[in-house]
Amino acid sequence: MDKKTILGIVVVAALFLGFAYVNTKQQEKYQQEMAAWQAYQDSVAAASRPAVPAADSTADGAAGSVAATPGEVTAPEAAADMAETVRQRRIAAMGEYLTAAQEGEPEEFTVENEVMAVRFSTRGGQITGVTLKDYTKYAPRGQRDELIELMDPASARFDMSFYVKNGLNNVKVNTMDYVFRAEPVKTAGDAQRVTMRLSVAENAWLEYEYLIYNKQAPERDYLVDFNVRLVNMAPQMANQTSIGIDWSNVSYQNEKGFQNENMYTTLAYRFPGESSIEELGMSDGAKSKSVATAVNWVAFKQQFFSSVFIAPQNVSSANMAFDTAAPGSELLKSFSVQMAVPYSAQVEGYDFAFYFGPNKYAILKKVTDNNGADLHMERLIPLGWGIFGWVNRWCVIPVFDFLRNYIGSFGIIILILVILVKLVISPLTYKSYVSMAKMRLIKPQVDELNKKYPKKEDAMKKQQATMELYKKTGINPMGGCIPMLIQLPILIAMFRFFPASIELREQPFLWADDLSSYDSIVNLPFSIPFYGDHVSLFALLMAVSLFGYSYFNYQQTASSQPQMAGMKFMMVYMMPIMMLLWFNSYSSGLCYYYLLSNLFTIGQTLVIRRIVDDEKIHAVMQANAARKSKGKKSKFQQRYEELMRQQEAQQRAKRK
Known about the structure:
With 656 residues, the chain is α+β, with helices and mostly antiparallel strands. The chain contains 17 helices and 22 strands.
């Protein structure tokens, strides 16, 4: 090798050895500092424990303490010296007040009103748990005595982060790393005031003030006002435009079915000025989303309960995420959101609030901010969009709430609700039956037209003649379908209402121990794909009633509408099977409603059949045909016939 190559190898080897030496020294220094800090922490913990008397060295010749030789330094003393050195470095880096707050021992305490118990920790000055007194976790009938917990205390986290000045350095403060000093809980009127402070410098501190009310008004009592005050903090704050907020916790499974509850559990939020809300959507895994615009509130939403962070002054951005726990873990989802609130030297504090309570429409509808502005938190209840939501909000919920004031059994309330709905749509049911009866009576004439125009090239003529026949006899071909389409919003509204109605929760009926969840008469030792590991009797009866209704309806329509014959398998057999698979894990209250609805529809049809006279209908149809045959064709009919002639001419031209 030449001299240049050898010289290059020597230089590289020297650099490598130098880096290795520096790295070794850095690791040794780091290990020494960590050992010193651990020794300091141990000494602080030992100092907080009561002193243990020294053993008598003369008893039974037991060994006593060995005195250190003058001038000799023991290992504990060396560790204490090093720990003090580390502490002084921390004081130099963070300041004396933050260092003292970091070394403090956290305390926990609970404040209650009539509807909930809120647990606080001075570690981070945060709420670590909420117990709802009026609701219990699902358990078999007679064993339901465990109150609802909205979060796992071990996972609860509320951290505010900002920068303070310390000499020429900026120190990042994460409130979760420090122990606040709690003031005694004070009562002022109908509110209990919890105050906790984190001192940053002399006469400068961050203050958390929580207000828990007991006004006998649920929309107020489930709210916790959370006022953040920056007392003399402006001179201490570093140059920054925002303060960070990190809020997270893990929710428990509170309902009977994991999959069904998980389907309604997600993270929701609202943009300022909007009457609708946004959601991350349903997932059995993890989901996340970043929002770079202002957000009014963020909710960790479960099927029937929510934890909501409300920022009337709005947060400027939010990074939201959730992950799903494993079935059988008794946990449901882990939620997290990182937010930012605007900050300037003129800001003296923020007025936030928390809502910890049920997803109950009557309560959430009345929740407002400090200025009385509507927060639209009732949108957390998935009542459906558009017309389906309108039906629930303006019709179903008011009637349901009215009946609850007078009737204790929710099974009876659902029965009355079915009767009321059937009475309201009975004119549509009657019109649909009459339309099908007309189609049935005119079928012989339609068959004659099919014989008259058997060829495919005469399809236009046959269609034109059929439409002319319908017009003369006064038949609307869509008369049987339109009433069914009008009823569809009610059916879908009920589909959304029952699984989301907390009023059905904990309400038993017949063999069902909770109408908000599925009823199970048999628990299978295995799981059937798309069906589950249990047999819901209400879902089974609903499917049987749907089969009966579909078969009965098919018998009515197939004779008058030959095209329906090809749909027999789908209508009569496939639909009930699909509904059985779909609804086996759904709300038993919903299955019960559909069961009653199908039975009442069959009964209505039988009654209408006895009332309606086919001969009278036929006579009216003949009178209409005779009257319209003498009359002049309308301009619409003339244009329609001309269009049909043009299309027929075009088809003949193509065939040539």
